[in-house]
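Students often ask why inverse folding is considered easier than folding. One informal answer: many sequences map to the same fold, so there is more than one right answer. In these notes we will look at a single instance of the problem. The structure comes first.
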């Protein structure tokens, strides 16, 4: 099957794979498209299967990535997603190879990606990346790992920045750090706020609007990071029902 690269010229009329079937988040999808379009000026590539399918890769130079890592002259993989009937058909390998070839053509020193120490929603499984030659070069609490594929012997190994090693913030109650990178993260916030308001719990969202803010954030996964009373809880974008169950349990235990 053919692949398609989204550009500033075609992004308005093309669908985003990750947002297929998410009509309730149409505004969030438009915000994602604006975010992508702005990042394209910084070297971001969004490359997908030319089908209505969740099969795509999104990457950009690590210096421009909205995550708290140090990876000079590496290509950072924002997202690699292959789902449904397209799994186990070689698409993930093909997309990652496209990223690798692009990095080589730009004279870069390697590829880097954030994975989970175990299988978790919204995080890539490290097993696939290890199979593709990556190795774990750093870790951050409670379950984030940094996988890297150096492309030459001189490459400096990437690392998480110091502030995310603690995994804490100064906020009380529920605080969510997020960017416009994921339409689901943006789209669910008001639903979660309503739940917190019903339970009388302080609820604050912190939208990271610049690369500098994201690189200094207290959470590794800047797309969505939920804290409670200053402690990191999860990167998972919860439904309102799941959030309410978690909040109820948390309040009962306190």
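Output (designed amino acids):
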């Amino acid at each position: 099957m053919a692949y398609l690269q989204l550009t500033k010229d075609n992004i308005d009329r093309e669908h985003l794979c990750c947002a297929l079937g998410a009509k309730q988040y149409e505004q969030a999808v438009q915000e994602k498209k604006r975010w992508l379009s702005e990042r394209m000026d910084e070297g971001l590539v969004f490359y997908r299967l030319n089908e209505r399918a969740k099969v795509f890769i999104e990457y950009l130079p690590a210096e421009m990535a909205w995550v708290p890592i140090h990876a000079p002259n590496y290509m950072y993989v924002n997202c690699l997603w292959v789902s449904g009937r397209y799994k186990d058909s070689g698409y993930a390998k093909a997309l990652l190879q496209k990223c690798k070839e692009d990095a080589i053509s730009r004279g870069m020193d390697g590829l880097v990606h954030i994975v989970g120490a175990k299988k978790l929603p919204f995080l890539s499984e490290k097993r696939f990346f290890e199979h593709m030659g990556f190795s774990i070069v750093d870790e951050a609490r409670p379950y984030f790992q940094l996988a890297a594929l150096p492309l030459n012997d001189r490459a400096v190994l990437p690392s998480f920045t110091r502030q995310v090693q603690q995994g804490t913030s100064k906020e009380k109650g529920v605080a969510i750090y997020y960017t416009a990178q994921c339409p689901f993260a943006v789209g669910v916030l008001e639903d979660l706020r309503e739940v917190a308001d019903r339970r009388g719990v302080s609820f604050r969202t912190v939208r990271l609007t610049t690369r500098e803010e994201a690189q200094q954030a207290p959470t590794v996964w800047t797309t969505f990071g939920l804290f409670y009373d200053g402690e990191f809880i999860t990167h998972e974008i919860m439904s309102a029902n799941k959030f309410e169950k978690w909040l109820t349990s948390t309040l009962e235990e306190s």
